[in-house]
Amino acid sequence: QVQLVESGGGLVQTGGSLVLSCVASGTIIGITDMGWFRQAPGKEREMVAAVEKSGTTKYSDSVKGRFTISGDRAKKTVTLQMTNLKPEDTADYYCHIYALSPTGWDNHWGPGTQVTVSS
Known about the structure:
Elements: E1 3-7, E2 10-13, E3 18-25, E4 30-39, E5 46-51, E6 57-59, E7 67-72, E8 77-82, E9 91-101, E10 104-109, E11 113-118
Parallel strand pairs: 2-11
Antiparallel strand pairs: 1-3, 3-8, 4-5, 4-9, 5-6, 7-8, 9-10, 9-11
């Protein structure tokens, strides 16, 4: 069974920084995509940043230039460095990987970590 656990969320003032970390455990044979999503109250979950197996990174327009994603497939970790945070970044942040386990390829999600940016 694959499990993801996020850490690093919290309360920060506008303009501040946070680093979110995620570690995966369980029988993981391979990982392709790794990423971070977020969901604000009353809104749908949206992709924030992702890193493909090739190393290609993708960011939502709202975070480009402020957030940086990095992933280590050998260590099964993915990190999101967030700078110049804005109140609109307030949301629950979810770690995601697309991984191969003994049951096959599947999407896996962490339980989420809350980020609150005060104005």
